[in-house]
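Cast an eye over my tokenised protein here and flag anything odd:

===
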Amino acid sequence: MEKNITATIDQLIIGKSKAIKNIKKAVEKLVSSKKNLLIEGQRSVGKTTIARAIHYLTSPNSEMKIISPPGVTEQEINEIAGLRSGTIIIREIEELSLLQQALLTKFINEQIRNKSVRIIVTVKEGLKELNSKGKLSNETRKILESFEKIEVPPLDARQEDIPPLVEHFTKTTCDALGMNLKALDINTIDLLSKRLWPENVGELKRVVENAVISAQGETVEIPATILDEHSQIDIIMKRIGERKKFAFDEALENLEKTLIERTLQAMGYNQTRAAKVLGISGANFRYRLRKYQIRRKPAGL
């Protein structure tokens, strides 16, 4: 049974970093209880995904209600108050007004006494910080401090999770569109793993989904604007230094495409000047624009 739960958790929460492994262990412990939970982490790190996983593992046949900003009315709270089993997820509670927080805090207190449902609350910062900034009432802070707690680090702090997340998003997008599974070359995955993701998993998901949808062949190509040319060279040289395999032809093509795009941008999208800077003929330059499907001018210009 424990092996089955672990396998299911691995399917629901994607990642292999130490942080994610610890989160999976915490989730496994929570499955056998009805303890309420506070999940802390930046926007779009996967807090709601973890909350949904806990609900699915604990009570898949019962209801799950999600309360999200920008607001919640007293009527909505009264509607979920009748829930007798299942999970209530309150997302980013600090984004609600203090009045809305007061209504929810009263509701949470009643649910704690009844112990009929599990309550999971997510926040983007620590409770003390939110309270000191006036974003969280004293009463709400006090009650949330009694919850079990899981902290989710930003994606940049767990780069080992990027390859499995990229594979997961590629597969789910292909499945949703009824496509055959498309491939990502080794270089692309390496580059995505080294890039910074200020908007966390949500940003990575959007980039992969857009790339899959835009892919013309069987291989997914990430936009050159995402793959910085300096990062491309650094990672290629690193793989060579480590004597690791990399896709030579694809690496050269990705770099060539990036250099053409950068030159075109620097020359104000004047093709003649860009070709001259690159030392190739106008016809050759236009051929490469077609080959790499490079826009001659960005939208809006």
Notes: Residues 99 and 137 are 9 Å apart (CA to CA). The chain has two domains: 2-153, 157-291.
